[in-house]
Amino acid sequence: MSDSISKQDLIIESAAKVFAKKGYHNAKMGEIAAEAGIGKGTIYEYFSSKLQLFQEMMDQSLNKYFNKVVIDSLEKIPMEKRIQMLLQGHFQFCVENRELTRIIFWDTEIIDEELKDWAYNLRKEKESVMQDLIQSAISEGELRDIDANLVTQIITGVLGAMWAPIVLENKEFNIQKLSQEVTDLIMNGIKAK
Amino acid sequence: MSDSISKQDLIIESAAKVFAKKGYHNAKMGEIAAEAGIGKGTIYEYFSSKLQLFQEMMDQSLNKYFNKVVIDSLEKIPMEKRIQMLLQGHFQFCVENRELTRIIFWDTEIIDEELKDWAYNLRKEKESVMQDLIQSAISEGELRDIDANLVTQIITGVLGAMWAPIVLENKEFNIQKLSQEVTDLIMNGIKAK
Amino acid sequence: MSDSISKQDLIIESAAKVFAKKGYHNAKMGEIAAEAGIGKGTIYEYFSSKLQLFQEMMDQSLNKYFNKVVIDSLEKIPMEKRIQMLLQGHFQFCVENRELTRIIFWDTEIIDEELKDWAYNLRKEKESVMQDLIQSAISEGELRDIDANLVTQIITGVLGAMWAPIVLENKEFNIQKLSQEVTDLIMNGIKAK
Amino acid sequence: MSDSISKQDLIIESAAKVFAKKGYHNAKMGEIAAEAGIGKGTIYEYFSSKLQLFQEMMDQSLNKYFNKVVIDSLEKIPMEKRIQMLLQGHFQFCVENRELTRIIFWDTEIIDEELKDWAYNLRKEKESVMQDLIQSAISEGELRDIDANLVTQIITGVLGAMWAPIVLENKEFNIQKLSQEVTDLIMNGIKAK
DNA sequence: TATGAATGAGACTTCATTCAT
DNA sequence: TATGAATGAAGTCTCATTCAT
């Protein structure tokens, strides 16, 4: 197992760990190297700079998240079930990848003027998959006729809000039950009937 | 006007501007001083360090936000109307305080190991006002009988998601209409009836 | 005296000393700072980089040399006398400014691709003054009718060759006598009559 | 041809090329290896360090130059003719070995405290052949009775000055004519008769 | 013998903070 | 109180050299 992982991946993995714990600016290259159990200079054999390492790591992390969370909900099943799967996937991911979750949802610091746009667009690009999903559900009459973009934002917002207690507070909770509850709220609203 | 503002506030204001634009680590004390039109050393007459200045600024910014946004919705009026006011206040604030908005919702970078908890708790504390509000609405039967904490998270999540397009993309939009739409979605859900 | 010198000049002076002794690449900023009796960071208050410091120092050194050596020989006196003054000035400068001499005539290492041209042209520009001098002497019949450029090169070559023994070998010699001898050789050649 | 050259020589040749273009400090071992078409580690099979490689290369280059330029002029022919041959050889060498020329006459950077003396003495040693030549010409009455050392310096100086335009500026010129002109100036001086 | 992935010492440079004025 | 010149700790990145293959 440990020799089936490429050095490139090993570095990205260690970088994710350290970036998640310390944030971009407080993470030191030496610390990432130590975490990977390699020499400082070795990182530069695979990545040209700290910034590039961060970008590569972020790109990979977002991919991992979206592959796990969004793609799973692409099957042709009722929307309500899909959203529940989405939330369930999200919670599962949060629990299993605490470091990555922190990076994806928290570490949005301004590292670099250009990186700001890169990060924002990277996220929007990934979200467009979700938006398409919503749009088709609206077209097929499963969802109310509302701005798909708005709904996407709301769902993303909810996801974005529901990782902190899990990851930061280490709360015990029932994934199944929580995702059902939240799905219900998103689908039917909070108003008493 | 400009001489009615204390030097302390002047510095905080300048700090907010620079922190919002550059992020904590890329903001330089010299730049904040220049923005305030004072000498670099003068900042240290009012704040003991960059970190303390950031904390003071953050605290004040969050207060400003919650006072504006939450407090306005505390009157004893129907919950639906309140949420709409909350959203309207939020959007209004976003438009009028683009810099502060960025700081409050974006610049959550990990500045310092201890600051992480401080920032998280500061936010939770402010949110508790909202949670009380929700709880009482549930008690009075206006809202469905669900975990008030969950609802708070969802609403905060939605707010947290709905600033970026406004502030970062400079989108034109109708505040009144948008807040009504989002309120409707939160209250009644997204499912077609 | 020591407080009449600006910090800028103090740094250049120290830089000249260290660059002369160690060469560009072996000179360390910390060493230059130590030589100047200031902190490492202070250098960067006056010069943006090591390279810029080197260029500034070099520019100033060449100016000092040419002002001392060439300008003195501009008076309207016989060419033979002028060349002798030139040589005398050169030797005088070598003796009095051993460090600068080394920099000007030796430390022509390739520091930077662009700097190479900069250095070469800087030198050529200064030499053009000498070339004009030669040209007018030819026009007025004092010198044989030969390519002024060639003569300039020869004289510069001789100057360039006649610093090393003085500076590197610390040889004792009679400036007056040596400059007369060399002038004689340049004017009348080496061939027996 | 290419397999008649030893790997040692191949490396020295490549080193000369790279050192000439970049200077000692900017030349990278990897680049020299690439130029030679071999692995980085292989260089260390033949040379113990970058410094030793440079010294070996320099020694060989100077030998090549002096063999070509000085030795050719050792035959027992009139001094004037000899000097002309010397100059002609020099110019020929410059044109044919632009890289080596640069190294020999330009790249005199201070690589290492000890190397400084080594380089200076290496040059002086080679020059002693020329000095002996001059001395005998003086003894035989062909040249004026002047310090042979001085004349050597002057001739070396002229040679040292007359490579840059050829190598750096890529000037077109007539080797035959130029060497005759310069010989004339050295022999008869620049003064109008 | 040949290789090139890995290494880590060391250099430049930044910038929060100090302190003499 | 206000200032900004001076500082030096600390971090990124380079590259000669090593050594397992």
From TrEMBL, chains A, B, C, D:
The keyword DNA-binding applies. GO terms for molecular function: DNA binding. Keywords: DNA-binding. It comes from the Bacteria. Residues 5-65 form the HTH tetR-type domain. Transmembrane segments: none annotated. InterPro entries: Homeodomain-like_sf, HTH-type_Tx_Regulator, HTH_TetR, Tet_transcr_reg_TetR-rel_C_sf, Tscrpt_reg_YsiA_C. Gene3D superfamilies: Homeodomain-like, Tetracycline Repressor, domain 2. The keyword Lyase does not apply. Pfam families: TetR_C_4, TetR_N. Residues 28-47 bind DNA. PANTHER family: ACREF/ENVCD OPERON REPRESSOR-RELATED, ACREF_ENVCD OPERON REPRESSOR-RELATED. This is HTH tetR-type domain-containing protein. The lineage of its organism: Bacteria, Bacillati, Bacillota, Clostridia, Eubacteriales.
